[in-house]
Structures are given as C-alpha cells and as structure tokens.
C-alpha cells in the first residue's frame, strides 16, 4: 500500500510540475509577443519621424513640417525649445512670387528674387536629386534662427516635376563675392557707373560674423557639423551688411569639382579649388579644419580683393594662389611694405595697418598645410573680436562711392 501511495504522490508532483511549466511557457510567450508589438510600434513612430525630417515627398502643398528648435540667443547659450515651420510651396506660388521668373527678378544663375506674403525671398531652382541630399534633420537645431546662417524657409514638393525650388531668406546686398570681385548681381540695387566697395570696418565685421557661424557649427552643435563649402560666393550680406553663411545642410550637394588645379577661368566655380584643404584634396579627410582652411582663404580675399586663384599674367607667369601669396609675403624681410602693396587698393589709407597685419597672420595660420596647426573657430572668434573692438566705430557711411552717380543702396 505504501508503495502504491508513493507512486501516486510522485505522479501528482510530476503532473503539477508539468502544468506549472506549461503555464510559465505560455506566460513568457505572451510577454514576448507584447514586447514585439511594442517594438514594432516604436519602429513605426521612428519611421514617421524620419519621414518628417526628410520632408517626405508625400507631404501636400499646404502642409507644414515642424521641428523643435531652441530660442534665438547668444551663440553659446542653451535655450528652451520652440517650434518653427519649414514650408512646402507649390509651383504656382513660386511662379507668382517671381512674376513667372521675370528677367527683372533674376539675381544670378538659378537664383531669383521674389515676394511672398509681403516678404522678400530668394528662390533657387535646383533638381530633385539635390533636394534629396539636403540634410533636413539638421534644421531640428537652433541653426534655423542663428543670426549668421542664411535661413532656409522651405522647398517645393518633389512630386510636382523633375525640378525643385529652395526658398531662402533674402540677402538684400548680395554675396561677398559680388562686393570683392565685381559682378554686382542685384541689378535693381546698383547702377553700372557706381564704384562701390566695403569699408574696413565692414570687412572686419563680416569676418567676425562668419567666424561666429563656424563657432556654432564646430563647437555648439552636437555632433559638430562641417560645412565643406565655405567661399565668398556662399557668404551673403543683409540690409545692414551683416554676413550670413549660405548652403548650410547642403554639404552633400556640393558640386564635384575635378578641374585641373592649374586651370583658371573667369567662372567663380573654378576658384573653388583654391578653398580646398590639402588633406581633403589628397586623402578626402572631412573635419572642422577644412572649414577653417576655406575661411582663411576668405580672409585673404577680404584683405586683398583678389580671387582665390588668379589668372596667368601677360609675362607668362602661371596662376597664383592666395594661400601661396600670403606665405611669401609674411616670410619676406620686407613683409610690411609687401603687405601694404597687396592689400585691396579700394581701401586707400582708410584702414588700420596693424589690424590688417594681424588679420593676415590669422589667415596664414588658417591655411596651414598641417590641419593640427590651424586655429579653432573659438580662437578665431576671440582674435577677430579684439580687432573689431580696437577699431574705432567712426564710419558713418555703410557704403563709399567715388562716383558722381549716387548708389541705390544708401547709408543706414
């Protein structure tokens, strides 16, 4: 009897363990299923967010894509997020804004001036392929309101045709290239007989403004952002000659410039080789230092009024690169006199030679062949800020003219 009872007891225990195992198994399966559903929902939410960040082609013409960005403030200050909107415009709105791309609205190349909702805007015709390469996710940051970065207002839907349009805030006084190298493109603001140029203080302020944009991209944004396309044609001047860096978020859209380094033409696109850092040309290295190199070339343009690469002269001498020229000048025993001769003659004697000499040395440091020897954007801002503070603010005219004809852009 006791053996029978023992067998029955063991059988009962075994059955109980079996039932407990089944219950545990089904409980774990149910839990895993719930977690799987939860993960799938998260993936769907992430996909939706990515679609918004990339301005999905399925957005309708009247839909706005919103991003969270910090309040506008000082460059290095943290701020509370707020919403702004990136518009999606229709082709009809673009045509109306530019008066059907009237020649009187043409600025330069594929860029037109327009008015939309009572505001001046700049409209750039481009391809869907270029728009697809824009890093729209970057506009989640406060860069969209940074005072020294040209604001992207919106674009057209990719579904409406092979071409697209980018809409930017309007820079009334054109590009820095226009002022330094002629070809003033905004025809409704300038007249041919007017000899216009930037004053010394204006040039210092422009240099400081762009250094501020670099400081923001390299030291405030997380992760840091490399612009890769800094040049005078991408620096724009507003009504008060404040400088704004254009083409932000378009590093992957830069043209593939494979021209012979010894080739020169009057087309500014061929000057672009003069902005490229050696490590980028030879190894394809992308780092904040390549922006600093290009910025150094811009400083040399501002100082000399010359293009990054100059054409061969009548004496049969080859093209001259500004980076080589400044090294030669500063290494000379007569560097002071050579620098005076090299500085933009449009300035006459209306500048501080000590400040010009300091700016030349900053530029020389920026275009060092070895990237680690170049200054950071923080260091550049610090040095140029001192030059701006030391220069007396006694220039009452925002524009100087040596013509009997009055310029259409007046002093503010």
Description:
Helices cover 39% and strands 14% of the residues. It has two domains: 55-170, 2-Layer Sandwich (Phosphorylase Kinase, domain 1); 174-412, Transferase(Phosphotransferase), domain 1 (Orthogonal Bundle), CATH 1.10.510. It is an alpha+beta fold and 412 residues long. A hairpin with a 5-residue loop joins strand 9 (235-237) and strand 10.
Low-confidence regions: 42-84, 185-193, 256-266, 395-412
Radius of gyration: 29 Å
Overall residue-averaged pLDDT value = 77
The major β-sheet equals: 7 strands, mixed
- Helix vs. strand class: alpha+beta
- Under the CATH scheme, which architecture of the largest domain would be assigned? Orthogonal Bundle
Record the strand order, biggest sheet.
Answer: 1-2-6-7-5-4-3
Q: Tell me the CATH superfamily of the largest domain.
A: Transferase(Phosphotransferase) domain 1
The CATH class of the largest domain is identified as Mainly Alpha
Percent helix: 25-40%
Beta strand count: 13
CATH fold topology of the largest domain: Transferase(Phosphotransferase), domain 1
How many H/I helical runs? Answer: 11
Primary descriptors:
7-stranded mixed beta sheet, Phosphorylase Kinase, domain 1, Transferase(Phosphotransferase), domain 1, 412 residues, 2 domains, two-stranded antiparallel sheet, alpha+beta, disordered C terminus
Short characterization:
By secondary structure, the protein is α+β, with helices and mostly antiparallel strands. It has 11 helices and 13 strands. The strands form 4 sheets. A 7-stranded mixed beta sheet has the order 1-2-6-7-5-4-3. A two-stranded antiparallel sheet has the order 8-13.
């Amino acid at each position: 009897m006791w053996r029978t009872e023992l067998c029955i007891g063991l059988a009962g225990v075994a059955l109980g363990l079996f039932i407990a195992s089944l219950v545990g198994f089904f409980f774990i399966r149910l839990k895993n299923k719930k977690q799987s559903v939860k993960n799938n929902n998260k993936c769907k939410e992430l996909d939706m967010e990515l679609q918004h960040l990339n301005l999905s082609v399925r957005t309708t013409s009247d839909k706005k894509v919103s991003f969270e960005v910090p309040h506008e403030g000082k460059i290095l200050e943290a701020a509370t997020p707020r919403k702004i909107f990136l518009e999606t415009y229709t082709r009809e709105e673009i045509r109306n804004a530019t008066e059907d791309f009237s020649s009187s609205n043409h600025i330069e190349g594929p860029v037109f001036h327009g008015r939309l909702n009572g505001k001046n805007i700049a409209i750039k015709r481009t391809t869907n392929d270029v728009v697809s390469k824009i890093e729209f996710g970057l506009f989640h940051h406060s860069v969209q309101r940074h005072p020294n970065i040209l604001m992207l207002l919106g674009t057209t839907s990719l579904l409406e045709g092979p071409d697209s349009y980018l809409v930017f805030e309007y820079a009334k006084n054109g590009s820095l290239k226009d002022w330094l190298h002629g070809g003033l493109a905004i025809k409704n603001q300038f007249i041919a007989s007017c000899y216009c140029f930037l004053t010394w203080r204006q040039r210092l302020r422009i240099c400081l403004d762009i250094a501020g944009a670099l400081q923001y991209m390299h030291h405030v944004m997380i992760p840091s952002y490399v612009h890769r396309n800094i040049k005078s044609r991408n620096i724009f001047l507003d009504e008060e000659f404040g400088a704004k860096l254009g083409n932000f978020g378009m590093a992957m859209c830069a043209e593939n410039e494979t021209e012979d380094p010894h080739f020169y033409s009057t087309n500014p696109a061929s000057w672009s080789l003069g902005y490229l850092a050696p490590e980028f040309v030879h190894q394809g290295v992308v780092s904040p230092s390549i922006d600093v190199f290009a910025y150094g070339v811009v400083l040399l343009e501002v100082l000399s009024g010359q293009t990054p690469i100059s054409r061969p002269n009548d004496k049969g001498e080859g093209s001259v690169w500004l980076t080589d020229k400044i090294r030669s000048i500063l290494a000379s025993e007569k560097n002071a006199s050579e620098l005076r001769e090299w500085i933009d003659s449009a300035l006459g004697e209306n500048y501080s030679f000590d400040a010009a000499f300091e700016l030349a040395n900053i530029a020389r440091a920026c275009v060092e062949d070895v990237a680690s020897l170049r200054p950071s954007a923080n260091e550049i801002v610090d040095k140029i800020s001192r030059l701006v503070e030391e220069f007396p603010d006694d220039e009452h005219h925002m524009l100087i003219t040596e013509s009997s004809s009055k310029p259409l852009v007046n002093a503010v």
